[in-house]
Specification:
Helix content: over 70%
Strand content: under 5%
Number of helices: 9
Strand order of the largest sheet: 1-2
Largest sheet: 2 strands, antiparallel
Number of domains: 1
Number of strands: 2
Distance between the termini: 40 Å
Structural class: mainly alpha
């Protein structure tokens, strides 16, 4: 399993970096939209939808919304409101962790609110990634933002293995520990104070703002991971799909980014970085 995970990562990471580096923003969004269709299909699995016609219909609706979100006039003016809605959901999601699993049942994760949530999170995340890419120096800013998630996850893994004693959310993801999360946050703090300062050309008070935003984004990535794990437990599935050998589905790989990307872009709006 570990060998599969490493092999898949070694294939996907260069492809992702090449896309970020060489593709125009419109091309990047086009590829992300295709990934969004796969995410929508897997989201119907989290909702427990079995009928393929229903799942295809949802995927088509998601695709139409992704196209509309890109083509609508005044997209950048509407984006902060969309991001605010997504961030409010992630804040609310934290309140579900403590009472899980007694507070969340299949009926609550199979209806219209869950369907609308999937559309909100998919569209807001992919627009956020494209927005970052389109900024001045956007290739570096998008890369920096993605690596917040990667570094937080890697730091948490190694810190958890070395020092993990206290479970972070045992009813949702028994393998995650408080010490692991702290290690991931420490690693992202180092990332902010080294690469981040260079990418955003931060000086003085801006360094503190960037550090704070980076840590908040890292926390959001943990919340995204736990939330998808929570939904998978309700659905009674181990992985959201099987398209990525050793990793599971697309949602299993982007669950942290679903939360981190909107938080990052909204944070940039609010801090002026």
């Amino acid at each position: 399993m570990l060998a599969q995970r490493v092999a898949t990562a070694l294939v996907l990471l260069p492809l992702l970096l090449a896309l970020v580096w060489y593709a125009p923003t419109s091309g990047l969004y086009g590829v992300l939209a295709l990934v969004g269709l796969l995410m929508a299909w897997e989201w119907t699995g989290l909702m427990g939808w079995a009928a393929k016609a229903r799942r295809w219909a949802y995927t088509v609706v998601c695709g139409l919304l992704l196209a509309l979100a890109w083509l609508v006039p005044g997209r950048d003016a509407l984006l902060p409101w969309l991001l605010a809605a997504a961030v409010l959901w992630w804040i609310y999601a934290v309140s579900l962790f403590r009472g899980f699993p007694g507070n969340l049942g299949k009926q609550q994760t199979s209806g219209l609110p869950m369907a609308l949530l999937g559309l909100l999170l998919t569209v807001s995340t992919l627009l956020s990634l494209a927005y970052l890419h389109g900024l001045p120096g956007g290739v570096w800013k998008l890369g920096y933002s993605l690596f917040i998630v990667f570094i937080a996850d890697t730091g948490a893994y190694f810190a958890g293995r070395a020092f993990g004693r206290h479970k972070l959310a045992p009813n949702i993801s028994p393998g995650k520990t408080v010490e692991g999360a702290a290690g991931g946050l420490l690693a992202t703090a180092v990332w902010a104070l080294t690469a981040g300062v260079h990418v955003f050309k931060a000086e003085g008070a801006q360094v503190a703002l960037l550090l704070g935003l980076t840590l908040v984004v890292a926390v959001a990535s943990i919340i995204g991971d736990l939330t998808e794990s929570m939904f998978k437990r309700v659905a009674g599935i181990k992985d959201s799909g099987n398209i990525l050998p050793g990793h599971g589905g697309i949602l299993d790989r982007v669950d942290s980014i679903l939360a981190a990307a909107p938080v990052m872009v909204l944070g940039l709006y609010l801090t002026g970085l």
